[in-house]
């Protein structure tokens, strides 16, 4: 896991070596173990390395392999299997890294090599013979790749902050994306960013730069809909197959030459990963360490669920907790780690989890991101699910509606909340919103949307920034593409039944998880009492919101102040998420000195 940087200047120009070094060093936290640079003609590549496989100096990047040179951020979990195949094809390896395997695979199979990869990545390969720069981002966008095409120059990096040393860099606000964030709470849902002219290479896409013609093209190589797989003919067989794939995913995601731990929230997803890790480790299972977030407020505290898992699997638990003062004091620090405003306080809790992981020497952490998106884990899946049943199956439809409304399935305060019309928040802002992509009808289309354009891209952004801020590599086994492809071809009724979500995962893990977790139906995950904190400290948030409105009148309408005052005085907590976004947006604008 690393930080990458690269620049291609117009023909005849040579990169400034000190500028490339400064830009690459902005990513020091992503790879504190070593750094390296490659220069040739108008091209430069930089890398900060976090050593996970082959800790020797042989893993230094940028790495060359015959006429190829690469800067790479990622992990190839099936590198051993691919290496064996490449050895049989005559390739020779000098290191034990997956980096060299990626290079050899590209030399052997060209751009189609990525279809053989099981992993997460963002890389750029310079092919001296073909005079091309081949850039690729993994199927689901687990690893970031940002680029700027300006002044006939292509610049790319793992994080936007790496562009700051560039002489032409100006942080200019992208108003439509800002409107999406503030009004709709959307983040990382498009290849556009909050910074005008900064684009991200979309998940499952390549960027290929022709150095002879000095132009580039972007192409898609993977889509969730693209791969159809044969599925077992019964729910029980499907659950067994799901467990088999998940267990292998956890096993290959645990390959490492450094200490591997896990983030444990006490929910179904992270508990499943820890249970499988414990099983896979065998004689070394007592060495497994996890980090868990414990809230000081019982309503938000997931400790009882964590404890029920630890009773069954006696792993070593490092607990993290924070007060309002702790959390509020870290807002600026976490914004600077993300280069963007913070969608909620839970991002700070996640930041604390990875900070603790680093202190405990856990350089690699497994996490449960992705399960909710591929297995219908959110309440928002209910409407497309019920529509997929339709009036043609009235008994099944009635059964599912009754199950949905059952008091043991959904917290009373959440019942039918997804039917409520969202308030018109745009009146308090002077910003447009971009036209959102059409979701399409049906359960399958909604699932595809959630993975590609909905909540998952935002969660992966948060996961990457929080982990890499502490030089920790986070891995997400539920996004093993084999598991995603299998899950996306399953019937909706294998994911939701009688109001219970993720039933196939519950069935698959029935013999491995405590009943307390198997029958847990709420959704939290490192949850903080954000609304309660805001309700108890309205003056602090009102002051911050007033400052944002007064500093940026081109963005915020003055009426927003009176709206916030009414919301806090009347304890309208359903508006607090919007007001939190306003506050952190203003802080981000000020910290990064963005131009409107």
Give structural notes:
It is a single chain. The chain folds into 3 domains: 2-220, Aminohydrolase, N-terminal nucleophile (Ntn) domain (Glutamine Phosphoribosylpyrophosphate, subunit 1, domain 1), CATH 3.60.20; 235-380 and 405-518, Rossmann fold (3-Layer(aba) Sandwich), CATH 3.40.50.620; 531-592, no CATH class. The protein is 38% helix and 16% strand. The protein is built from 22 helices and 19 strands. It has a 6-stranded antiparallel β-sheet, with helices on one face. A 6-stranded antiparallel β-sheet has the order 4-5-6-7-11-12. A hairpin with a 2-residue loop joins strand 2 and strand 3. Helix 5 runs antiparallel to helix 16 (481-488) and helix 9 crosses helix 22 (576-592). Mean pLDDT is 93; it is low at 407-420.
Radius of gyration: 24 Å
Q: What is the overall shape?
A: globular
Instruction: Write the CATH fold name of the largest domain.
Output: Rossmann fold
CATH level-1 class of the largest domain: Alpha Beta
Beta strand %: 15-25%
> What class, by secondary structure content?
alpha+beta
Please estimate the helix content. 25-40%
**pLDDT < 50 runs, ≥5 residues:** 407-420
User: How far do the termini sit from each other?
Assistant: 34 Å
Strand order of the largest sheet: 2-3-1-9-8-10
* Number of discrete helical segments: 22
Looking at the overall shape, the CATH architecture of the largest domain is: 3-Layer(aba) Sandwich
What's the story with the biggest beta sheet? 6 strands, antiparallel
Q: How many structural domains in the coordinates?
A: 3
